[in-house]
Amino acid sequence: MRAFRFELERVRRVRAVQEDAAQGRMALAIHAAEGERRRLQDLSGLQDQWRDQWMDRVAGLLDVEHVRWCRQQYAASVAAVRRQAGAVADAESCLESRRVELVEARKKRRLMDRLRERRLLEHRQRAERQEQRGLDEIGTQQHHAKSQAERR
Question: N or C, which end of the chain is more exposed by having fewer CB within 10 Å?
């Protein structure tokens, strides 16, 4: 019997490459989301600093221009935090879509792997049956020859 050859091996390899590519895109999305989260934390810290400085100026000596400037900086930091929160949400959305893409790619590759294993098992069973038929034929011939020899 000839050696096992999976007729869909090219498809299986393509699926494996697609899974690897999806895994790479997922890693990039994770990295981007983490970066966006870090930027949001940094901006939140800056926002807290501006708020504290503004409140300190209001509570202390009143330099109206400086209080106004601190309030403007605080307002700008609030807007930056809101924009960054949107960027984080976008990154999280991208991350989720990459996760779904990776899961689908893995399912397709695993399907091909299971199909290959099933076909390999079938091939081995056919080979064993063929070998058993050959052995049965040899046993039958030997039995027939022995019975012929005993009749003489």
Answer: C
Structure tokens that stand for 95 in this block: 């991350």
DSSP the chain: -PPP--TTHHHHHHHHHHHHHHHHHHHHHHHHHHHHHHHHHHHHHHHHHHHHHHHHHHHSS--HHHHHHHHHHHHHHHHHHHHHHHHHHHHHHHHHHHHHHHHHHHHHHHHHHHHHHHHHHHHHHHHHHHHHHHHHHHHHHHHHHHHHHHH-
What's the rounded Cα separation, in Å, for the pair 139 and 152?
20
**Cα 56 to Cα 44: distance, rounded to the nearest angstrom:** 18
Rounded to two decimals, the pTM is: 0.68
